[in-house]
């Protein structure tokens, strides 16, 4: 009983009658609610009447002369199985940023710290890159000028030369994290070094003494400590105490006293150390 | 260690955790009553035997005695040496082959191995290969390797164990027919060894800030991945917009036919698809979910994606600073930490499970101190669990 189906392009664009009805009644309910609210606050509205469109006659008459009457009911009581096939979804990997892909889909476990870093850098991308770079360059130049301005003498230009250039380089290196100044001499005769250290300590001692005599409170003297040997991170499979060298475990006096514990019964050891 | 009497346990429940606690603390265990009443398969299952083999491979000097029926097991742990060159290690890699009919996913082996690895003497480098490796999640409750990589390994970062850890997925495989076997290949490299894990204080779960995930399919069209992702996003987009789910498509692994009729014949195994999702909070707490298509098939990708999203939402709704998946790992590492009180906020729904309570009891049997539990500061039904470490960490490697 299936006829040839005609094309009905104008039908397809029209909303179905059910949709029209539902939308209309919905707006009607809204209108009614607003109206009731208004009337509760002010006085009743007289003239306004709710407009209702007649939804019982949908405009399907244009096609009524078609010979196709739709699908017929199956005679033997079989039901038609409806398979819903939604449209193929768009590729969802299109919008994935590359660094996200790299950090998440490698063999390493994704770490939270690396991902926050990326988030920061991503926000930077939004602003204009060229002006940003120029701003940063100017900033750096200004910072350097401010930091090294005491090296400049008035008649020279802004870029230091000669000895001042070396000093400026030294300052920059130290601000970048250099451990020692490049200007400090690291190789010299022992007597010279001793002399320098003695002079410095004498000068410091004099400064402190004069301050004390004059009643000035200075900062606390810091004891300079060398690299602390026994707080170092020990290797996993090495011994937990002493120093293993040339097939021999050397224990110094302190190690031995710590192992033996305090001699006095009941007394606590002078310095509590935690060793594993 | 031989002087201390062995701890006696019964039944096969939490066998792996008991064995790794035994290895970590150096106490020998005697486990009896392993499936005694099963008429067909009494005693240890083949994946449990395989796990014991793995333990033997990464330790030195452990003794394993199994009774004739397999219902009783005596395990005397040795030192955890990792993949140091020696017996069974070639080129610094231990090769481990689970049995061909293995029904458990590879995470059954991976997670306990990750718990042992930080306390090893040398780096741990194990290659899981062979016809028994299922890299996907399984219906037995194991998570997929993606979840292990993205949700379990980041837990170790909180304990200061974060360098040189890799989990390489060399070949993916879902569970084979009837859920038995796959033919995947996974390599775990765990090269950060510590004396003691750091003490942690996690008291603030934070808010969920991102959702990530991996959709994987082996041997089928990548459209299935896209459909899973679409369905999962359909559920999750309502709550958060920072969602990326990656798609991984791989061919199904081939296995040579074993029946011997045709020498060169091969068969495909481990066809399927699945989804692994994680939700990360602003305090780096990770909740995870994992759903895979059943080996018998018959479930469309939309259902898998939706179920996975719902499972993730359920895991998030439990709350606390640790997910149900990560809770036993965190609590074990805390118990092995330094002699200091670590605190962990946990949801009642997480701590009140049989598994966690059983773990707490087991830890006490092994000599760890009990947990202190009090109500959290916020009125959200969470409890704060205080765990005092044993300070052993690494019983075998201390030189007195």
Walkthrough of the structure:
The complex is a heterodimer of chains A (276) and B (400). By secondary structure, chain A is mainly alpha-helical. In chain A, 43% of the residues lie in helices and 2% in strands. Chain A is built from 8 helices and 2 strands. Chain A has helices spanning 9-13, 17-41, 98-104, 112-126, 129-148, 163-175, 190-214, 253-260, and strands at 243-245, 248-250. In chain A, strands 1-2 form a two-stranded antiparallel ribbon. The longest helix of chain A is centred in the first third of the chain and has 25 residues, at 17-41. The model of chain A is unreliable at 10-23, 52-60, 116-124 and 272-276 (pLDDT under 50). Chain B has a domain at 205-318: 2-Layer Sandwich (Dihydrodipicolinate Reductase, domain 2), CATH 3.30.360. Chain B has 9 helices and 21 strands. Chain B has helices at residues 15-25, 46-58, 107-116, 145-157, 223-236, 301-318, 327-335, 348-351, 354-365; strands at residues 7-10, 29-32, 59-60, 63-66, 73-76, 79-80, 89-90, 93-96, 124-128, 165-171, 185-190, 201-202, 208-218, 243-250, 254-256, 266-268, 272-281, 286-292, 341-347, 372-375, 382-388. In chain B, the strands form 6 sheets. Chain B has a 5-stranded mixed β-sheet with strand order 7-8-9-11-10, with helices on one face. In chain B, strands 1-2-5-4 form a 4-stranded mixed β-sheet, covered by helices on one side. In chain B, strand 7 and strand 8 form a beta hairpin. The two termini of chain B are 15 Å apart. Mean pLDDT of chain B is 90; it is low at 396-400. The interface between A and B is medium-sized, with 23 and 38 residues. Chain A: Residues 106-117 have a biased composition (Low complexity). Chain A: Pfam families: FSAF1. Chain A: Residues 265-276 have a biased composition (Basic residues). Chain A: Residues 1-31, 45-135, 153-172, 182-276 are annotated as: Disordered.
């Amino acid at each position: 009983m299936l006829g040839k189906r005609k094309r009905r392009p104008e039908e397809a664009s029209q909303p179905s009658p059910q949709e029209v009805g539902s939308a209309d009644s919905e707006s009607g309910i809204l209108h009614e609610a607003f109206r009731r609210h208004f009337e509760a606050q002010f006085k009743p509205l007289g003239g306004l009447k709710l407009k209702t469109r007649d939804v019982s006659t949908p405009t399907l008459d244009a096609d009524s002369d078609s010979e196709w009457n739709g699908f017929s009911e199956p005679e033997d009581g079989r039901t038609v199985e409806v398979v819903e096939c939604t449209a193929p979804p768009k590729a969802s990997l299109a919008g994935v940023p590359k660094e996200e892909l790299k950090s998440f889909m490698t063999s390493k476990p994704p770490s939270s710290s690396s991902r926050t870093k990326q988030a920061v850098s991503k926000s930077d991308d939004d602003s204009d890159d060229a002006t940003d770079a120029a701003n940063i360059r100017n900033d750096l130049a200004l910072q350097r000028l401010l930091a090294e301005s005491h090296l400049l003498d008035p008649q020279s230009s802004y870029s230091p030369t000669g000895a001042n250039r070396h000093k400026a380089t030294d300052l920059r290196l130290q601000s970048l994290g250099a451990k020692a100044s490049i200007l400090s001499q690291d190789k010299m005769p022992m007597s010279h070094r001793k002399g320098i250290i003695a002079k410095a300590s004498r000068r410091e001692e004099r400064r402190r003494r004069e301050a004390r005599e004059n009643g000035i409170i200075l900062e606390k003297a810091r004891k300079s400590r060398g690299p602390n040997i026994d707080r170092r991170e020990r290797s996993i499979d090495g011994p937990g105490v002493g120093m293993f060298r040339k097939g021999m475990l050397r224990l110094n006096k302190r190690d031995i006293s710590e192992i033996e514990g305090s001699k006095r019964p009941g007394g606590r050891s002078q310095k509590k150390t935690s060793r594993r | 260690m031989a002087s201390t009497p062995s701890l006696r346990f019964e039944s096969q429940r939490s066998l792996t955790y008991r064995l790794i606690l035994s290895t970590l603390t150096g106490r020998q265990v005697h486990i009896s009553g392993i499936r005694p009443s099963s008429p067909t398969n009494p005693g240890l299952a083949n994946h449990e035997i395989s796990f014991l083999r793995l333990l033997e491979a990464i330790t030195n000097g452990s003794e394993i005695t199994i009774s004739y029926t397999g219902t009783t097991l005596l395990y005397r742990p040795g030192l955890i040496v990792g993949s140091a060159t020696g017996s069974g290690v070639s080129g610094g890699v231990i090769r481990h082959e689970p049995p061909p009919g293995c029904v458990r996913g590879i995470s059954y082996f991976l997670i306990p191995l990750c718990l042992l690895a930080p306390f090893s003497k040398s780096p741990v480098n194990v290659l899981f290969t062979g016809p028994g490796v299922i890299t996907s999640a399984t219906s037995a409750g194991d998570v997929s390797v993606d979840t292990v990589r993205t949700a379990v390994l980041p837990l170790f970062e909180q304990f200061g164990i974060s360098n040189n850890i890799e989990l390489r997925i060399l070949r993916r495989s879902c569970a084979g027919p009837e859920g038995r076997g796959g033919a995947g290949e996974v390599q775990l490299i765990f090269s950060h060894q510590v004396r003691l894990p750091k003490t942690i204080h996690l008291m603030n779960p934070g808010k969920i800030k991102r959702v990530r995930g991996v959709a994987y399919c082996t041997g089928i069209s990548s459209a299935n991945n896209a459909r899973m992702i679409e369905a999962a996003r359909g559920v999750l987009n309502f709550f958060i917009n920072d969602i990326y789910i990656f798609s991984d498509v791989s061919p199904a692994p081939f296995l040579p036919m074993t029946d011997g009729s045709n020498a060169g014949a091969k068969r495909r195994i481990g066809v399927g698809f699945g989804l692994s999702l994680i939700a990360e909070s602003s305090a780096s707490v990770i909740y995870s979910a994992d759903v895979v298509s059943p080996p018998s098939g018959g479930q469309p990708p939309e259902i898998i994606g939706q179920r996975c999203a719902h499972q993730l939402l359920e895991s998030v709704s439990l709350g606390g600073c640790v997910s149900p998946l990560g809770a036993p790992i965190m609590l074990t590492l805390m118990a092995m930490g330094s002699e200091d009180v670590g605190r962990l906020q946990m949801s009642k729904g997480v701590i009140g499970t049989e598994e966690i309570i059983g773990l707490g009891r087991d830890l006490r049997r092994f000599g760890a101190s009990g947990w202190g539990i009090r109500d959290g500061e916020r009125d959200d039904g969470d409890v704060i669990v205080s765990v005092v470490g044993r300070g052993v960490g690494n019983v075998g490697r201390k030189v007195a």
